[in-house]
């Protein structure tokens, strides 16, 4: 038997055929962001058909279809996803209608990534785990008793919007002090731009061809390795709040493991350096140990693998 | 069969004999804060013996002894409690040694209060619940899948030390911005003292016999009812951060119910007024509903009842 994992992103719908935890075939299709739920279901059906045809397999050989979407999946199954123009859509039912007898599960994409890491990657063998994806925003996925946990209304594990301090700019969500305004790639870029626009000298500006709009988180990490002082300030601020955010997560969920993924985690040497010590120094009680803090194993394939394991 | 619940506090050890969810006998003993673990175990044995003698029951009729303590219970069973001078003490084993064949369970006191509310009170019938006790500090108790949850190392549910914003004074734990520095009775008192010491006029000062050291949270709430402007500012600040803290809890745990207890909850009319609306307005997605926000049912008996149900 096979499972199919589908990773619906803002730019593409990636799908994979999975057997025994390995992706054996992949295909994708551009996301039609304006097409609404019906077009999305049609496109998902298209990639599933494409997988079956190319691999000469029948519906009967597919155990389940898992779908990760960048939005909130309410306990009722209703999906809301601002970026894709979905509001309270019963997505899993609509997909199910196309593929009778195949189990269909739809989940939030960060939760899906947590499932991938828990089933096959950095959180394997742990019972309670938290996944943080540090990218454009900060995503969160929670595993409790070995299972994905997203709370009573599907809004739990939105860890990027846990507030941790006050910040000099508001979050897109309208609140101030959200974790993602300190620890996303966007937050890193914004703070570098702020310091440089205050006329601080930095090699980052050269990397960005003298246009602060071109700055990326990677440039900041590269400059940090060259001991650039602006990069030092930006990275130290990022690390301080990352530690504080993790301490807050410990004081609520206290997982066995925290896995850090997303684009920012590519600078794993910088992200992990001293981080556990900072966390250990700031939890209210560390006598019983703190969570293992690790880097996520899967990058682009986490969505397909996790969705296939839902 | 009976169960015994013991609530170890900083000033007294309260014990109760419980049958079918009702306390049928109570007794207590002063806490010997300097006596260490052995004295505490001796005192617990004393109140248990006193319960058995006064009610003419034998060890065989007692199913379990539950103990709530104001500290951290590590997954190993080791108890650390700064206020009682306990560090990594295997308290349940020591108590067990005194009462062979009776099951002994030791838990954090806020978790115990959550168990009481979940078994018999305001959170009954809910699967995922969070208890917030707003007193001298802010305590937290979490119920997941109907069971108390305190994470992998016993430090989860220390919700008073989740950071939510930056504050004008540091928390006792050494961090800045902890929930309890905004929403405990202590936080309310401190902010009223701060405003009054800045020469703001307030009837609170009269209530406190012209000594700001006498100010209590209750005086602030009483003055709020009299439309005192300082009290208004203090209460509005408290409510704003209470809503933010609850929003953060939703973005991580997203419970079905949040129960507010502790001394501050005595002003339930003021605490609840508009609170759900503020929370609803600030969660990133409210289309699927937000938790019910309620006032805890048990005051002084929560510790005994909850411990007896562990």
TrEMBL record, chains A, B:
Q: Name one Pfam family in it.
A: ROK
Q: Which PANTHER family match?
A: BIFUNCTIONAL UDP-N-ACETYLGLUCOSAMINE 2-EPIMERASE_N-ACETYLMANNOSAMINE KINASE, ROK (REPRESSOR, ORF, KINASE) FAMILY
- InterPro entries noted in UniProt: ATPase_NBD, ROK
Could you tell me the superkingdom of the organism this chain comes from? Bacteria
Task: Please report which protein family the annotation says this sequence is part of.
Answer: Belongs to the ROK (NagC/XylR) family.
- Protein name in the entry: ROK family protein
């Amino acid at each position: 038997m096979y499972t199919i994992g589908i990773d619906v992103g803002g730019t593409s719908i990636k799908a994979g055929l999975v057997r025994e935890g390995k992706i054996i075939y992949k295909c994708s299709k551009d996301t039609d962001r304006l097409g609404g739920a019906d077009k999305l279901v049609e496109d998902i059906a298209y990639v599933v058909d494409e997988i079956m045809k190319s691999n000469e397999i029948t519906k009967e050989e597919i155990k389940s279809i898992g779908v990760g979407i960048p939005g909130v999946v309410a306990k009722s199954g209703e999906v809301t996803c601002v970026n894709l123009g979905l509001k309270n859509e019963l997505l899993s039912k609509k997909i199910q209608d196309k593929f009778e007898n195949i189990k269909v599960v739809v989940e939030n994409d960060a939760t899906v990534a947590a499932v991938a890491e828990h089933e096959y990657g950095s959180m394997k063998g742990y019972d309670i785990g938290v996944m943080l994806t540090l990218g454009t925003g900060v995503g969160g996925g929670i595993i409790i008793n070995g299972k994905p946990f997203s709370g009573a209304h599907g809004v739990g594990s939105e860890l990027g919007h846990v507030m941790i301090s006050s910040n000099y700019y508001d979050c897109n969500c309208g609140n101030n002090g959200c974790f993602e305004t300190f620890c996303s790639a966007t937050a890193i870029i914004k703070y570098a731009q702020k310091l440089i626009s205050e006329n601080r000298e930095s090699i980052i500006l050269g990397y960005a061809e003298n246009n602060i709009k071109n700055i990326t988180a990677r440039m900041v990490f590269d400059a940090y390795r060259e001991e650039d002082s602006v990069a030092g300030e930006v990275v130290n601020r990022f690390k301080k709040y990352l530690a504080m955010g993790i301490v807050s997560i410990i004081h609520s969920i206290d997982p066995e493991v925290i896995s850090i993924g997303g684009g920012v985690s590519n600078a794993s040497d910088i992200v992990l350096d001293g981080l556990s010590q900072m966390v250990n120094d700031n939890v209210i009680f560390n006598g019983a140990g703190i969570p293992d803090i690790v880097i996520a194993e899967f990058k682009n394939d986490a969505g397909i693998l996790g969705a296939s394991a839902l």
